[in-house]
């Protein structure tokens, strides 16, 4: 019987397995999809995520990111990171780097689907594998979370994400966030000849129709060729009753998700993965809930506040002008997140 079975081989699951291996635990991953696994995301790693990767012994190629820029049709606000930089990294490159590190540490990956979990007094089983504990890193719409009855209803209107890449050299060393009346477009520099554009919106419509809400961005993209097809994700917000159910602990997007608005999801997944492993190693799974809440408190507060402002028609148009008028405050908030 192994110490920890990680269900899900995305970045959160791989980071959890790497932390466990570095802590001396016997760990394995259950993931039926061959890698590298792509996903609709903004692909901008904040400085905290870059630091967390270094602690895992993971080096990943990417385009340096030195700040966050907010834009609307009349205003621009820019906040530069402090001493450290972020990275624009293709999701597939991130997954590949984490996979190589897990393989270096001898973590086996079983190509099995483990959506059904059976718990016992001293162990848990899934897909024929037995472990003392199970980390569910099976994504935004986690089947394991659903099986355990941990989902909560969400009264707010759902939001969705769409992402496409363009064969275009980056024009900035920042992640640009373009604001329109009902959506945001994130522009991430990813490397020579490659720029990513992700749209977050409450409206269900094709990517090109969504992009029409950002005329300045459309002009900047010009006639650049598309480098990838559109990928989508959502609904984004996932409310969770608790992140611990017996010997099962939720991590990454499976542990609950507010929104991609602040771009902190990967960093949060890495830091809470470390907390999960600490609790498993101490044989104190129940302590993980408070550890997760404590670790994610700042992220949840800032993201929820920004979402509430965004949802108010009177206040939403004032977000970018306020950031432009108060550059010191905007920079402080960006660096708090970063």
Labels describing this entry:
10 helices, eight-stranded mixed sheet, alpha+beta, FAD/NAD(P)-binding domain
How would you describe the overall organization of this protein?
The chain is of the alpha+beta class. It has a single domain, classed as FAD/NAD(P)-binding domain (3-Layer(bba) Sandwich), CATH 3.50.50.60. Helix content is 33%, strand content 25%. The strands form four sheets. Strands 1, 2, 8, 9, 10, 11, 19 and 20 form an eight-stranded mixed β-sheet that branches. Strands 6-5-14-15-16-13-17 form a seven-stranded mixed β-sheet. A three-stranded antiparallel β-sheet has the order 3-7-4. A hairpin with a 2-residue loop joins strand 15 and strand 16. Helix 1 runs parallel beside helix 3, helix 1 packs parallel to helix 7 and helix 7 packs antiparallel against helix 8.
């Amino acid at each position: 019987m192994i110490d920890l079975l990680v269900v899900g081989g995305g970045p959160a699951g791989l980071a959890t397995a790497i932390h466990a291996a570095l802590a001396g635990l016997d760990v394995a991953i259950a993931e039926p999809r061959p890698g590298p696994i792509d996903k609709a995301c903004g692909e901008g790693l904040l400085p905290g995520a870059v630091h967390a990767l270094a602690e895992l012994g993971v080096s990943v190629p990417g385009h340096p990111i030195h700040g966050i820029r907010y834009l609307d049709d009349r205003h621009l606000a820019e906040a530069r990171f402090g001493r450290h930089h972020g990275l624009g990294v293709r999701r597939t490159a991130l997954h590949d780097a984490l996979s190589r590190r897990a393989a270096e540490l001898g973590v086996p990956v079983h190509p099995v689907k483990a959506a059904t979990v059976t718990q016992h007094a001293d162990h848990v089983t899934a897909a024929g594998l037995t472990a003392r504990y199970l980390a569910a890193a099976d994504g935004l719409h986690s089947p394991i979370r659903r099986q355990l009855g941990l989902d909560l209803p969400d009264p707010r209107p759902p939001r969705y994400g769409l992402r496409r890449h363009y064969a275009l050299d980056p024009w900035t060393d920042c992640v640009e966030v373009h604001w329109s009346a009902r959506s945001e477009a994130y522009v991430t520099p990813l490397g020579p000849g490659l720029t990513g554009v992700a749209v977050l919106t409450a409206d269900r419509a094709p990517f090109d129709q969504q992009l029409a809400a950002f005329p300045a961005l459309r002009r900047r993209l010009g006639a650049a060729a598309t480098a990838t097809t559109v990928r989508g994700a959502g609904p984004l917000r996932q409310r969770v009753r608790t992140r611990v159910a017996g010997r099962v602990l939720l991590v990454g997007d499976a542990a609950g998700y507010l929104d991609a608005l602040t771009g902190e999801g990967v960093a949060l997944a890495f830091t809470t993965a470390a907390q999960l492993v600490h609790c498993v190693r101490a044989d104190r799974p129940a302590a993980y809930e408070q550890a997760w809440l404590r670790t994610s408190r700042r992220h949840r507060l800032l993201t929820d506040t920004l979402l509430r402002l965004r949802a108010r028609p009177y206040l939403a148009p004032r977000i970018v002008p306020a950031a432009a008028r108060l550059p010191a405050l905007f920079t402080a908030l960006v660096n708090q997140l970063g």
